[in-house]
Amino acid sequence: AAAAQARRRAHSQAAAPAAAAGGSGGGQTLVEKIAQRHAVDLAEGEVVRSGDFIGIRPHHVMTHDNTGAVIPKFSSIGARRLADARQPVFALDHDIQNTSAKNQAKYAGIEAFAKTHGSKFYPAGRGIAHQVLVEEGHAWPGTMVVGSDSHSNMYGGVGCLGTPVVRTDAAAIWATTQTWWQAPPVAKVELCGELAPGVVGKDVIVALCALFANDEVLNHAVEFVGDGASALPVEDRLAIANMTTEWGALAGLFAVDDVTLRWYDARAERRASPIVNADSVAKLRQDVAADPRRWAADPDAVYAKTLWLDLASLTPHVAGPDSVKIAEPLGELEPRRVRINKAYLLSCVNSRQKDLREAADVVRGVQKARGVPAKVAPGVAWYVAAASSQVLADAKDSGDWQVLVDAGATPLPPGCGPCIGLGVGLLEDGEVGISATNRNYKGRMGSKAAHTYLSSPAVVAASALQGYICSPETAIAGTTRSAPPSRPVRYGSKVHAAKPTTAVSTDSAAATASAISGFPQSLSGRLIFLPADNLNTDGIYPGKYTYQDDISRDQMRAIVMENYDPEFARLVNPEDVVVAGANFGTGSSREQAATAILAAGVRLVVCASASETFKRNAVNNGLLVLESPVLVAWLRAAFPDAPLTTVTGLHANADLVGGKISLADAKGSMVFETGLPKVGKAAQEIIVAGGLENW
Length: 695
Prior knowledge:
Layout: H1 2-20, H2 30-38, E1 39-40, E2 53-56, E3 60-63, H3 67-77, E4 88-91, H4 101-117, E5 120-122, H5 129-136, E6 144-147, E7 161-164, H6 167-176, E8 179-182, E9 186-192, H7 201-211, E10 221-225, H8 227-231, H9 234-247, E11 251-254, H10 258-270, H11 278-290, E12 305-310, E13 317-319, E14 327-329, H12 330-333, E15 342-345, H13 353-370, E16 381-384, H14 389-398, H15 400-406, E17 410-411, E18 432-435, E19 451-454, H16 457-466, H17 472-477, E20 491-496, E21 522-530, H18 537-540, H19 553-559, H20 568-571, E22 577-580, H21 592-599, E23 604-607, H22 612-620, E24 624-627, H23 629-638, E25 646-655, E26 660-664, E27 670-675, H24 681-689
Parallel strand pairs: 3-4, 3-6, 4-5, 6-7, 9-10, 9-12, 10-11, 15-16, 15-18, 16-17, 18-19, 21-22, 22-23, 23-24
Antiparallel strand pairs: 1-2, 2-8, 12-20, 13-14, 21-25, 25-26, 26-27
Helix pairs in contact: 3-6, 7-9, 10-11, 13-15, 13-16, 19-21
Organism: Coemansia aciculifera
EC number: 4.2.1.36
Protein name: Mitochondrial Homoaconitase
């Protein structure tokens, strides 16, 4: 551990001057400032910059149902107690509809572990972990909180730097209070203008995902600024920060301002807790007033790029089908009368009190206009779940919950449920769903032969009542509106600096000329090409298996890539070199996406680019993931009509230490060669050990 810390510090010290040189003043972004406060063992005067590898001691680390998989990792490290019992937070939320004896025993084991060690535990039914951490004050403004879940970005809505880690990292934090982190490049997103009535935070992030759909913020942290950002209520900020995950970002952060403070004032008055109360909120106000610079980026902060969006030009948007990178204005989609079978108002992105109220108001509007009770359209099933038990109680007190239930919505317990493909109400073959959730990948919410659209809660409610995707105005009027004149969304890029070269899991800056004992100088095998971009972790390892902790490696091998291409498991051989498209491993932070590839006998994946979370999972488990967009471009040209899994007939030889890969045809003649990131000593040690836990 000491050696690893020394390496990280040496790399950080070497990288900082280069990072600072990228800008004129050398100020820090808000992400860098918060990371600096949670960094450990920095040299005197050392300033955290994007690109630095640092040790971090997060304020809290959250695990949910996957706590059951982290516990054995923690034990196998050799730890017998938590280094700081106040740091972990356990919240059960994913598979809470599963009342089987096996799952109940798992939940009881997690609760017993928390009780034994004296850590905070929230049982099934309390709510979705991310919402609970915000409500209870664990995700506190100005702190850094990590979670073993990809939507930990959501904490940025209250000015808390939230970012995902993987299960092995969680175990390491339990045992030592810290782990490693590479400060990402930071993109500034300027939101200007004011949203029109009926346009909400969900529309903002859905539009951003589609308007900037070429990996502009992939593996970046995003800071939202501008008068438009300042005008957004906290609930909309939480929704936007939450779905920066789907946008490809590692964090989405709003600065703490008067809107944030007023939200905490109201919460302390209505729902006081040991952390969120009148005294703590008053102290927060004092801290912000006493040192405003601490709570905002420096004027001369160095950003990788700046994007902007005019909120006043935005109309309600719908994403899909089956991708967050495809979206269109609701007014253009509605005339096509896309019929739906199921509607969903749930998840950590859009099932807070504001969301439930907006949906209930649509029902009230329809009832008032028609003079009869509003009901779900024939042939449509509508499912609703509050983000937490507190949200549910508030919605019941306001009457909003009963309005939704009386309209025919089926209530589900506060938790993830259909959003993760668990429990009742999943999409079946050929069905179409409209959902206020954050992901619509094929197979995410049920059948791979179904289609899913994403929208705001009000549009979900309207569509459920009409039976096709439509606006609240159409539902109230009872007839489809003609498409309004097209009004273009105003957006653009003020600055597009060259994308920083991210030091990947290979630690290429510290690469040596030789391999350490036990590390292969090279890896070679058949080249299997997966041409798709954005091959997400649901495609690699389906969500329905994620919380089955007893799946064997042989079973993993049989189901790897099941949601992407069921033929992959049959076609792949041990020692094959897999080459994939851009943004490989995006989506959920599930660790099994890496271990399932290893179970298939694959030791090396080369891709145009990879999700940072997936890369972290991969190297932490002993799988090498290297990036070579040049190689992928060559393969696309060589195999223009490549099927989902292409056995190319080529033999790949990757020189891991020298930093190159060569391809030979069936006769042994070399047909292509290009560079690869070099695998340095630090990464070699982790791979030789079989992963970070063993190391």
